[in-house]
Amino acid sequence: MLKSFRRFLAIQVGAGLTLAAVGFMPAHAADADVVATVNGMEITEGDLAIASAEYGAQFGNLPDPQRRAALLSALIEIRLLASEAEEKGLAEGEAFEKRLAFLRNQALHTAFIEKIVNDAVTEEDVRASYDKQIADAPAVNEVRARHILVKTKEEAEAIIKQLEEGGNFEEIAKEKSTDGAAANGGDLGYFASGQMVPEFEKAAFAINPGEFSKEPVETQFGFHVIKVEDKRAKQPPAFDAVKDRVRSLLVRERYVEQVSALRDTAEVDVKDPALKEFIDAAEKQQEEAASGAEAAGEGEETKSE
Question: Is 0.85 topped by the overall pTM?
Answer without folding.
Answer: no
